[in-house]
Structures are given as C-alpha cells and as structure tokens.
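Notes, p. 3: input format for complexes.
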Amino acid sequence: MIFWGGATAASQYEGGFAEKKGMDTQDCRPYLPRSNNATVQTRLLSQQTIDEAKKNNDQIYYPFRVGAKGYEHLEEDLNLLKELGIQIYRFSLSWTRLFPKGIEEEPDKDGVRYYDQIFEFCKKNKIKIFLTMNHYAVPLYLVEQYGGWTNRLMIQYYLNLAEFVFKHWGEYVDYWLPFNEINAGYFSPYNGTGLVKPEDRAYSNQKVFESLHHQFIANAKTIQLAKKLKVRGQFGAMISCFCYYPLTSKPEDNFKLVKEEQINQWFCSDVLMKGQYPYYMESFFEKNNVDLKITENDKQILREFPCDFISFSYYSSSVVTTEEAEKTAGNLVVTTKNPYLKASEWGWQIDAVGLRTTLNKVYDRYNCPVIISENGFGAKDVLVNKQVHDSYRIDYFDSHFKEIIKAKKEDGVDVRAYIAWGIIDIVSAGSCEMDKRYGVIYVDGDNEGNGTYHRYKKDSFYWYQEFIKKQNERKRI
Ligand code: BG6
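Output follows (477 residues plus 6-O-phosphono-beta-D-glucopyranose):
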C-alpha cells in the first residue's frame, strides 16, 4: 500500500519571524522581481547579502520571514489537511525556532510548543509523520561564527538538535529525514549547506565537498544516536532526481549523461545508502583539486550507519548533450530542452513517465523502500470568487499518480509513500516567489507579502481528497 500525503518546509511555510526565532540563512534571501534575474541572484548567499539582511531594512522584502504565515494559521491548516484526508504529513523543524543561535543547551519553550501542536494533531488523527530535521535553513550564528558546515564542529551542534528531537518527539515519527535533498549541497550550496559565497568568486569545490562530508557524518551519527536511544521509525536519505536523457543516441551524449548523473544525482545517496564514497569520486576529487580529511573513524561510522530507505524529489526530467542546444530550467539546475515535452511557466519539463523511470532506477540501485518525498506542479493560480480552477495541476497529479501505480504494480518497485510538495501554497525555495504555487490549498499572499493570507480550497483539493478516499476504499476491499 502507498501512503498519500503532503509536505511543507519550515522556512517556506511558517513565517513567525520574531526576535525569538534566531535568524537563519533563508531569512537573509530577499525577494527580487523575476525581471531582475532573480533566480540567479537569490541563489547567491554572500556576506554582503547577509550584512544587508541584518539591517532589517523594511524597504526590502524577505519572503522567508513571512512564509505562508503558517505560524499564525497552524490550527486552520492542520484541520484543512485532515479534511483533505492525507495519510502522511512531511514537515520540517526550524532549527533557529528551537535553538536561536544553534548553540543553546535548552530549546526555546515557545518553539517547542509550536511543534508540539503538529505532532499531537497528527497522532490524534492517525496521520503518519515524515520529519525533515533540517530543510536547507542553517542558523546564521553558526555560519558567521564557525563557517557553517565547512566546520566539523557543526556535527556536534546538529547532534544536539537531534538529541532533543529524539527525546521529545521520538515516539511520534514514522520516517526520519536528517537532511532535505542532500545533493543540493553540490549544485545549490546556498540552499543545501547554507554556504556563503566569497565575494566575486564562485563557490569553492573544496568548501562544498567539506560541507557535504560533514553532513554525511552528521547523518550517520544521527542514526547511531537514534539506535542508542532506541528511537522508533526508519531513517532515510533524500536526493533531488532529474531523470536524465541523452539528447541523441550519440555515444558521447550518453557517456556525458552517466557522468552527470553520478555527480549531480547519485553521489550523496551512494554515500548514505552504501556507507562509503563511490569509486567515481576519487578521480573527480583529483581533477577538481578537492582534498578531504576523511578519517578512519569517519569511514567506520558511514559504514555502520547507512539509511534504511531512499526518498527523492522529482518535478521534471533533464537532457544531456555534448553539443550546444537550447536550455531550460529545472529544480535548482539548468538543463537542455526536450523536444518531446511541455514545460511549466518556469521551464520545468513535465514528464510523468520520467517518474516511473526514476522509481525503477532508484529501486534498482538501492533495493530498499522508496518514498517520493516531493512532487508537484508549480504554477500561477488565479483566485476568482474564492475559487481556483487548477485543472493543469489535476492533470499533472493524475498522470504522475498513474505512473507511480504502474511502477508499484507492474514493475514491482517497493513504493511506500507519495508526498505532494507544498500542499499549502508556500514561498518558492528557488525563486523566493509566492506566485509559484504548488498547493491544493490557496494562500492569498503575493510576492511582496501583501494579501489577507486567507486559505481557499482549489479544485485540486477536492480531486486529491477523492483520490485518497478511493485508495482507502480499495485497501478495505
Ligand atoms: C525542492 C525543495 O528542491 O524543490 C523545496 O526541497 C522546493 O524546498 C521545491 O520548494 C520546489 O522548488 P521551487 O524552487 O519551485 O520552490
């Protein structure tokens, strides 16, 4: 059986940016209109951006400080999710709502109370919990003081968070995810590891891979700690999947695909699932002048504490070629256009079969339970007379769900859950826009924080509700 669910992430959903919540890296990213090449600019977390953000200049809008105002609307939102009938809810914890600087010994009581409500609600309503312990945002204090994940010290601070979470909420969680999309640390360091870009220079490979290595060790040590504390639930790795195609059958295109897939998609999950660095990283590190300090103890901990399940986000597929070709956007990456596919307004190429292919590939590679931890369609919706007619989103769900069911029933992939991304409209992680909506629940707020922030059920809400109901009935037969 597949559990059907929905997801949000703290920095994109909560808001509730008061002095008590410490500032994190996402709180520093301003909204820049798209005409201003926003997707590129907001990807760069530089010291200058941070210094500007700390001034709290009210002429600049910081969307992650407002999110979807979930902090204020929590009860209403949870009731809407219950009405929708989701069987699994994926949400994340804001590290700085619990530990404002990331170094405190005791968490903030209000922060704890806020999350208590979600855990209790899910338990009472028999909604399974998929908990992301860290979804991109890194405490700014740790970044400024210690260089964030480039510093090994971060592992200990992360484990302090994990220990509190295990002791306080361990009994509620079914699926644990220490890090969202861990491979984003490579192709999108500002998100994945909260890495600050040196002025006028590209992110350094050395720093990127050091940061990732520290996250790998934190991941393994978190599982070790959970075992020691006898925490229930399973631990997962999550990657962003791109389903690569070669543009032509030219052998060079296909070979390039293999190399891109290794570094962009598989490298991080290979480490976390197989418990060691894959062979292909050795030559990559050599060519890119990366010299990691991997101790014998690191190797042992990775080997002894791999993840139990694999999860991934999938929105669109990608194309690889050695030639010059027309480009389009994908999730935090740029790719080549596929002549056979249509794309969203943001250029993400819609490919339901690609999801089935990805499920097969992921299962082939790791041979363990698989969870689609993010999928959905980002679109501009129009609210008219309190209604949103989002037939395009329903079509997207319908075509993708059919492929998931085929992957499970016809191909035999062990799919455990499907989690629709941004089930309630939230701020886009890539473009910082509110206009890029994924939800089945509309939130009346705009790119600059104007609006009532009232909630409205879209047509897709009723469609998904009906779909889940039917799945439940089938289960009972
Ligand atoms: C994933 C992230 O990369 O894609 C989410 O885990 C993000 O945080 C989602 O929101 C969709 O991307 P975007 O840029 O459309 O918000």
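The first strand starts at residue 3 and ends at 7.
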